[in-house]
Fold:
Amino acid sequence: MSLRERKKAKTRRTIQEQALRLIAAQGYEATTVEQIAEASEVSPSTFFRYFPTKEDVIIQDDYDPMLEAALRRQPPGPAPLTAIRNAFRAAFTEISDEELAQIFVRTKLTLSVPALRVRTVEGMFATIDLLTRAVAERTGRDPRGFAVQVLVGAVIGAVLPCIKVWVEHDGARPLPELVDEALGFLEAGLPV
Structure:
């Protein structure tokens, strides 16, 4: 990354870290954009250049493009579901333990604040669209095709209980392990 890109990434990270710190101390509703901006040593207008809303400071991340890139790097041989599972494995290796800890805090917050849950659902649909396009390109199918959309929807559906279990059990099992197990279960045809 260029110096400018590194500075932008650092500012973005600082804003998110300060937002999480303030929210942990005083609650989501009581924390204002102005407080987050002041703690981050940026102006409110700078805050809004990085995050359009207060919800976005919690919801937004760079992990969908990371997952998409990992999927596009998969060799052409494996079936789409196997390629997606391998892409998740690869993407998780790019996330540091520190980042995963922050994801845990953000996810826990997201599950506890109704406005954030609504925004998370919007984000899931965006993730489905992104992965649907990548799978369609990989398979030579139409991204609007029902089968491709169902496959990606099933993957996201399998990931959701992983996130829930991860948070409800305070991270006792690592998220990458839970996701891999769930996708393996999906690959095996969901034997119950």
